[in-house]
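Entry 14. Structure prediction run on the chain below.
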Amino acid sequence: MAVHWVNYDLNKAGQDYTKLIDYLKSHQNWARPLKSSFFVKTSLTASQLRDGIKQHIDGNDDIVVVTVTGQSWATYGISPNLNEWMKKNL
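Output returned:
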């Protein structure tokens, strides 16, 4: 099971994020560290997750999916709950 960091920009003004967010939350475990990013714990590869995301966005949107190793990380201004999630999952 890998953790991927998903970052997105939905470029059309007034776009509805509901389908994308519901898809990201449908995986085994997830956290939302910033407004336009998620950590997603899943058995999918980064490419498979990206392809799944593409079904829930427009063709002009931007997506970056990075597999997180957890070797080193630091936060500032992030909730204690998110820090705990990161300690347990990264």
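The CA atoms of residues 1 and 53 lie 18 Å apart.
Filed with the rest of this week's runs.
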